[in-house]
Amino acid sequence: MRKQIAAANWKMNLDLQQAEQLMTQLLATDHSLGKDQLALFAVPFPYLLTVQQKLAGKTNAKVAAQNCASTNNGAYTGEVSAEMLKGMNVEYVIIGHSERREYFQETPAILAAKVNKALEAGIKPVFCCGEPLTVREADTQNSYVAAQLKESLFHLDKSQLTDFIIAYEPIWAIGTGRTASSDQAQEMHQHIRKVLADQYGQEMADSVSILYGGSVKAANASDIFGKPDVDGGLVGGASLDAKEFAAIINSLK
Ligand code: PGA
């Protein structure tokens, strides 16, 4: 059975002390995670160890990196490789967030290389896709998102994509307070699953967790996560508030 996942994406926020405080507050909240549920904390690289220590011993709460290099170790000043993350027992990495695509010119080919490096290191990618507002207004979001999947993932074998994690994040909903409706989310998630099924078969498609991202908060999480093809969320702003994120965890199916 595919996992239901609440993934926090802290982005480039908080100092170390605030990061520790947020984790302490979160761990003190009333939240529960079942067998097929997972909480992920995608924190800035310098905080990975600290947050990992806070989560020590928990089988269903893990840290994630927000990015990794598209190359192996070498002369790439400022980069962090998937091998390094593996050495720190980091099991998940976000790849292809729209902010990386837009502000750091990460192309589909670069993202495909990052996905390869993560998988070679045994790290699970959380692969992001999603359309800008102009594409949504032209009602061409389905082909746009299908192309994103095809360009960066379809070189992989079925076995590499089994139990994979995809996050659908419409760019017009990220950090804007304008959430996609639960019906819009379901429609796109169903489409993503069909695109995967057409390429790799229904069994593989059914094993993939597809998260929704874009202004998820405690007040809308149950409605969105309640849809059959929505397997949780990738949460930015609301993940910086312990009570909000705990309520989002408790909204998982
Ligand atoms: P948001 O960000 O929840 O603040 O909209 C989501 C994301 O970018 O992952």
Strand order of the largest sheet: 1-2-3-4-5-6-7-8
The number of domains is 1
Average residue pLDDT = 97
Small molecules held by this entry: 2-phosphoglycolic acid
Count of individual helical segments = 12
State the major sheet: 8 strands, parallel, barrel
How large a portion of the residues is in β-strands, by DSSP E? 15-25%
| CATH architecture annotation name | Alpha-Beta Barrel
Radius of gyration: 17 Å
Along the chain, the helix and strand elements come as EHEHEHEHHEHHHEHHEHEH
CA distance, first residue to last residue = 12 Å
Reading off the top of the CATH hierarchy, the class is best stated as Alpha Beta
Question: CATH-wise, what's the superfamily?
Answer: Aldolase class I
The class by helix and strand makeup works out as: alpha/beta
User: What overall geometry do the principal axes of the alpha carbons give?
Assistant: globular
**Low-pLDDT runs:** none
